[in-house]
Amino acid sequence: MTTAAKSPATVDDVQRLLREQQYIADRALSVAVFLAITLQRPLFLEGEAGVGKTEIARALSRGLDTELIRLQCYEGLDINHAVYEWNHARQMLEIRLMEAGGQVDRSRASADLFDERFLIQRPLLQAIDPGRDRAPVLLIDELDRADEEFEGFLLELLADFQITIPELGTFQAAHPPVVVITSNRTREVHDALKRRCLYHWVDYPDFQRELQIVTTRLPDAPRELAQQVTGFIQELRETELYKIPGVSETIDWTSALMALNETKLEAEVIDDTLGIMLKYQDDIELVRGEPVRHLLERSQNRGPRRGGRGGGGG
User: Fold this and answer.
1) In CA terms, which of 49, 138, 259, 270 is 20 to 30 Å from 150?
2) Which residues partner with 119 through β-bridges?
3) Is 184 in the same domain as 257?
4) Containing structural domain, residue 109
5) For residue 264, is it within any domain?
6) Tens digits of per-residue pLDDT, 4-57?
7) Residue 13 in contact with residue 277, Cβ under 8 Å?
8) pLDDT tens for each residue of 43-99
9) CA nearest 241: which of 180, 286, 302, 306?
């Protein structure tokens, strides 16, 4: 592939590349990433919030030494914010200059005004700019937050890495971007879009992988503390919570405990720091106090157990 000199040649290269960027990926995820790069197919990642989907794109852009272009999706996202829009202020200024010079001709003015000089490129068009000398990583983040109609804008892009602008014609990438699409599955994404992608479910990591993630991201963390935090989080995920803490919360909590100069977990300090892991008051009240003590006791005997169905971590 003509992306960059560091483009991985094998699945092992992908794992190594991600690990060098402090992203711990299992074999299945590394295979999906390798095939997405090699086959030039978009990679569609689904999973709960906080399991490291977005971080995959960041790690890839750093590892491939190329630009990361991010489109953050939200309700109401449209073509003007995602693909392109015209610079109306500059167009109006150009019209006034034409009028002042007595050069106003309707057909000529229309051609002059809808010129690339007045085109504002948004993330999707930036990613396939034919003038690029290497492929960027395009992150379309949390697609499930956008309206279903927006998915239609993506079909041409994902199928042929091209976008058609009525006034200018078709723009096609000289070097197709590495596309990573994420979804927290708050709604189902249409099959027509999924068919254009390689699919991978990113689950919560098991104990050993999550411990490896924590110690990789926080190499100064005391080993006992990292093990206890990981075990407690793993146990906490089996509780009936409104929002289960992700890997990012594991890392944040460990960092907070280190800032408090804690070297091992105690029930009192867990109660004091629940807001780092849990973001809803109902969840905090559910586990605070005696439930924390039971969770801590169980987690200390937890150790390595069967965990998620394959994932990674930031």
Assistant:
1) 49
2) 86
3) no
4) 84-113
5) yes
6) 446 899 999 999 999 999 999 999 999 999 999 999 999 999 999 999 999 999
7) no
8) 999 999 999 999 999 999 999 999 999 999 999 998 889 999 988 888 788 777 777
9) 286
Q: Could you give the CA distance from residue 98 to residue 23 in angstroms, rounded to a whole number?
A: 55
Amino acid at the residue 203: D
Please state, in angstroms and as integers, the Cα–Cα distance from residue 117 to each residue in 87, 91, 257, 280, following that order.
9, 10, 53, 48
- For the segment 132-190, what is each residue's pLDDT rounded down to a tens digit? 999 999 999 999 999 988 998 898 889 899 998 888 889 999 999 999 999 999 999 99
15-43 in b/e form (b: 16+ CB < 10 A) is: bebbbebbbbbbebbbbbbbbbbeebbbb
CB atoms within 10 A of CB 7: 20
Neighbouring C-alpha atoms within 13 Å toward the C-beta of 186: 14
Helix (H, G, I), strand (E, B) or coil at 200: strand
Task: Report residue 61 as tokens.
Answer: 């852009």
In sequence order, what are the residues at sequence separation of 6 or more whose Cβ sits closer than 8 angstroms to the Cβ of residue 260? 269, 273
Q: Is residue 32 part of a domain?
A: yes
Q: Under a CB-based contact definition with an 8 Å cutoff, are residues 290 and 253 in contact?
A: no
Of 291, 233, 285, the closest CA to residue 257 belongs to 233
Two tokens, residue 206: 């098991």
Q: How many domains does the chain have?
A: 3
> What is residue 1's predicted lDDT score, i.e. its pLDDT?
39
